[in-house]
Specification:
Length: 115
């Protein structure tokens, strides 16, 4: 069974930074694209960033230039570096991996941007 465990969330002031991590197990991590999603209260879950197995990344317009997704295949881990955080970035952040039509999710990590 694929397992994804996120960490690194917390409370940060506007303009601050956080780095999220997602450790994967029970999969051949290097073979798959990975993604980060987020869900704010009362809103639908939205794609934040995606990274291919080759390392090509893409971002939602709302985070382009502020967030960076990366992966370390030796550690089976994907990261999301978040800079210049805004109150609108407040959400639960989820790690995601699609495998042959199945979607796997972590438990989520809360990010709160507030002064």
């Amino acid at each position: 069974q694929v397992q994804l465990v996120e960490s690194g969330g917390g409370l940060v002031q506007p303009g601050g930074s956080l780095r999220l991590s997602c450790a994967a197990s029970q999969i051949a991590f290097s073979l798959y694209a990975m993604a980060w999603y987020r869900q704010a209260p009362g809103k639908q879950r939205e794609l934040v960033a995606r990274i291919s197995r080759g390392g090509t990344s893409s971002y939602a317009d709302s985070v382009e230039g502020r967030f960076t997704i990366s992966r370390d295949n030796a550690k089976n881990t994907v990261y999301l570096q978040m800079n210049s955080l805004k109150p609108g970035d407040t959400a639960v952040y989820y790690c995601n991996i699609p495998i042959f039509g199945n979607e796997y999710w972590g438990q989520g990590t809360q990010v709160t941007v507030s002064s």
